[in-house]
Amino acid sequence: MNTTDYILEMNNICKDFPGVKALDNVTFKVKRGEVHCLIGANGAGKSTLMKILSSAYTETSGEIFFNSKLLKSHGTRKRRQEGIAVIYQELSLFNELSVAENVYMNNYPKTKRGAIDWTKVYQDTQNLADSLNIKIDAKAPVNSLNIGQRQLTEIMKALACDAKLIVMDEPSSTLSKSEFDILVKVIDDLKKHGITIIYISHHLEELFIVGDQITVLRDGKFVVCQKTCDLDEDRLVEHMTGINLSQIEAEEKEIHHVSDEVVLELQALSNDMVQDINIELHKGEVLGLYGLVGSGRTEILQSIFGIRDIKSGKLLLKGNELLLKNTRQAIRNKIGLAPENRKVQGLVLSLPVWENMSMVSLSKFIKKGKIDYQNVSTTCESLKDKLNVKTPSINTVTQNLSGGNQQKVILAKWLMQDCDILLLDEPTQGIDVMSKEEIYKLIHEITTLGKSVIVVSSELQELLRICDNIHVMYDGRQILKSNKANFNQEQILHASVIGRTN
Fold it and tell me: Which spans in 64-166 are helix H?
């Protein structure tokens, strides 16, 4: 293929930070007018490569050609003038200003007398929105827009600078299904207008909706570039992790055994959100709760953990009724919860990793009335290594860790407490594929030790893979129970959406 068929060629890019080689001889090429997906686990080098493209970072070595022109490092504004725009996950909009004012920020058209031509600003913005079938009023203040409309405003902002290549970094992370559908249509329109897009997302299913080609990075190195039609999700995960998923799943099925012993039982349990819930959790079992948002899944976990009052029915632990008044009692009974909102409910982000890991179980480390901090440190270091928590130190402030590593810190907290029952609410939400695989492996490992897990997840494929039984919830009621031996994806989805099994 002729080199002019590529709008972007990043050749043999290396980037060194003190003590770290973030990119190791990476070559990344993008054809004109395509949607090229760039993926990899946290730390793979995606963000570093894009920051080099935008000139926020300067490459240690290598060359970048854009439109067949060798680019020199002259700063992000110069790159934007060259036609390269990056839309980051954290949007850079001024909420008090109008859509049009944001779209033409630092790029306002002027009248012959040098004043800002506000008529042209608003008219051109509206024309731009209309050309992409974006339903946004150019005069509307940004703070009146939903998150999807704000994302589209960022796209218009890039186009107003005559961008020929737009990088979209996790554009769907905060979008609803309907907002994502609008984004897909806009991306299709951008392609029709000859705009090239680099699309970054950890939601693999999206790549097959929007992408023409996919490049995978792993540990700062190029792994593969293939057409989307030649790949599937399992193959992508294998490229990203270097792990053979089919082999792992076969091993999980072969090794995992669920005991007949019932460790937790809900008998006609009701709270203010759910009614007559009946669940038996066995020793060594992974039990899944599936349903739409608001179906009552989280509220079941909250009653088991003592957060939400039980109005009627019983909660039995190893055959004995458990009357929980608070979370401390649940913890004393070796029950742990990794909540859905890990940043607010699961962690104290301003504290270091070791304090978050040990905060529940510090009493175990008291000797002669004093905390044995050396023992605490040794235990935290061991869990950091066991769970592969990527942090420079256990003294690192937890908010500086990625989402996946923050989730591992929460899991480490309950492993340190030696919980027999672990409640996981959306355990892999918003984390990369590599961390997901590590969490799946950990769940498998702790159940082989006789621990039991209840998982709430909006990803049915996740539950189908890791669970022994799945209970489907709808509007606070239990609709269906399905065993691994007869999992039926269509039946589970059907029950979760319409609230009945037929």
Answer: 76-82, 99-103, 118-131, 147-160
Instruction: Give me the DSSP letters along 448-465.
Output: HTT-EEEEE-S-HHHHHH
DSSP run (H or E) holding 480: strand 477-483
Cα separations (Å) of 161 from 79, 92, 186, 198, 347?
A: 11, 15, 17, 17, 41
How far apart, in whole angstroms, are the C-alpha atoms of residue 494 and residue 468? 20
- Counting every residue written for the chain, the total comes to 502
Strands (E), 228-311: 262-270, 277-282, 286-290
**223, containing H or E segment:** strand 221-227
Structure-token pair, residue 235: 């193959």
Composition of the chain by helix, strand, coil, percent to 5 = 40, 25, 35
Interval 309-334 mean pLDDT: 95
The C-alpha torsion from 94 through 99 and 100 to 101, rounded to 10°, is -20
Taking only Cα atoms into account, the Rg of the chain, rounded to an integer number of angstroms, comes to 26
Distance CA 303, CA 448 (A): 26
pLDDT value at position 1? 44
Eight-class DSSP state of 282: E
Q: How far apart are CA 229 and CA 213, in angstroms?
A: 8
Contact between 297 and 290 under an 8 Å Cβ cutoff? The reply is yes
Q: For residue 322, give every residue at least 6 positions away whose Cβ sits within 8 Å of its Cβ, in sequence order, or none.
A: 315, 316, 333
Of 404, 341, 399, 20, the residue nearest 202 (C-alpha): 404
The whole-model pTM stands at: 0.65
How far lies 454's CA from each of 212, 272, 282, 426, 468, in Å?
Answer: 38, 20, 10, 11, 10
pLDDT, the chain, mean: 89
